[in-house]
Amino acid sequence: MSVAPVLAALGDETRLRIVTKLSSGGPLSIAKLADGAQITRQAITKHLHALHDAGLVRSERQGRERIWTLEPKRIDDVRTYLAQISQQWDDALNRLRAAVEE
Predict the structure, then answer these.
(1) Which end of the chain is less enclosed by CB atoms within 10 A, N or C?
(2) What is the pTM of this model?
(3) Long-range interactions of 45-54: CB distance < 8 A, separation 24+
(4) Which pLDDT score is estimated for 1?
(5) CA distances (Å), origin 35, targets 20, 29, 38, 73
(6) Sheet strands (E) in 1-102
(7) Three-class DSSP category at 101
(8) How far is the C-alpha of 29 from the C-alpha of 35, rounded, in Å?
(9) 14 SS3 class
(10) Distance CA 59, CA 19 (A)
(11) 4-101 under CATH 1.10.10.10, yes or no
């Protein structure tokens, strides 16, 4: 599965704040996610749907509220992808250093 949609979703500052809040606060309602935010609940909902489409969050009904939870698998996918890129850069820099030292 491609990590591009996840990176695109996380490229928005509001969505990144929502993910951060979910990762530190656990499952939360839209009302709790909107607490302290400078945007409306409707805007939070829009961002949550974008995060859902990227596979980063899921929701379930609890009474009259919808509770949102982070999907750690997608975060792990991105972490793995970024680790691979980091390793490629480390390898390239090591080759460059070896070439310069010769």
Answers:
(1) C
(2) 0.79
(3) 47/12, 47/14, 47/15, 47/18, 48/18, 50/9, 50/12, 50/15, 51/9, 51/15, 51/18, 51/19, 53/5, 53/9, 54/5, 54/6, 54/8, 54/9
(4) 62
(5) 14, 10, 9, 26
(6) 28-29, 57-62, 65-70
(7) helix
(8) 10
(9) helix
(10) 13
(11) yes
Taking the C-alpha atoms of residue 87 and residue 30, their distance in angstroms, rounded to an integer, is: 38
Place of tokens 């489409």: 53
Torsion of CA 96, 90, 8, 59, to 10 degrees: 170
pLDDT, averaged per 10 consecutive residues of the chain (102 residues), comes to: 87 93 90 87 94 95 93 90 91 90 86
Specify the pLDDT at position 36: 81
At residue 16, what is the residue type? L
